[in-house]
Write a structure and sequence with these properties.
Layout: H1 3-12, H2 15-39, H3 51-55, H4 68-87, H5 92-120, E1 135-140, E2 150-156, E3 159-167, E4 178-186, E5 189-193
Parallel strand pairs: 3-5
Antiparallel strand pairs: 1-2, 1-4, 2-3, 4-5
């Protein structure tokens, strides 16, 4: 197909169909660029001010609907769906309605996908409450009756930690003994016991 064929094809289209072709081609091109940049490690955002860059590492804000990525996805699906409806002989109103619905469904699917992916993300911050009920090993002996601090080695959230511990036991807990975490004293001290039952 040469340029003359493309020009004559374009001239044969009515304005309504041309609009959908512009949306489909322009946003498909942007989608491909975004995809290539994502695989190349550039995250695929085409504007420096995209909110995704600023909130991507902030767990306090959920998935954002109004982003460059969603705009590109919406109009890509909108354009191609509109063309398919026109080729199917549907009316202008029905074509616009179905194209808007298809674009919206795409954005909702992306929201569901990103929300599901964000649930898989694990924070590296140690949550002390996750240690309760776990078994640990004494690293430095723990004095009896909360008379001083000892240290334990404990695996929490998939990694080994060395944490301070105290006990309510009447006898000190020697180094190398297994203990069970029964409570949290504060953000850096665990309450343990040598009674594993």
């Amino acid at each position: 197909m040469n340029l003359l064929d493309i020009s004559s094809w374009w001239q044969s289209l009515v304005m309504f169909e041309k609009i959908f072709w512009v949306f489909a081609l322009l946003f498909s091109f942007l989608f491909v660029i975004q995809l290539v940049m994502a695989f190349a490690g550039g995250d695929g955002d085409l504007a420096a001010g995209d909110a995704d860059d600023y909130i991507g590492h902030d767990d306090g804000i959920g998935y954002q609907f109004f982003t460059i990525k969603n705009l590109i996805a919406f109009f890509t699906v909108f354009g191609w769906t509109g063309i398919a409806c026109i080729k199917g002989g549907m009316s202008k109103g029905l074509t616009i309605g179905i194209a808007l619905l298809a674009g919206s469904i795409m954005v909702v699917m992306m929201a569901f996908l990103f929300r599901s992916m964000s649930r898989l993300k694990q924070s590296g911050t140690l949550q002390m409450k996750n240690a309760i009920g776990l078994v640990a090993e004494t690293y430095l002996f723990i004095p009896a009756g909360r008379e001083g601090f000892g240290k334990i080695h404990i695996k929490v959230q998939g990694s080994l930690h060395e944490l301070q511990a105290i006990t309510d036991d009447t006898e000190k807990i020697p180094t190398g003994k297994l203990v069970k975490v029964v409570g949290i004293v504060n953000d850096s001290v665990l309450l343990v016991t040598s009674n594993l039952s």
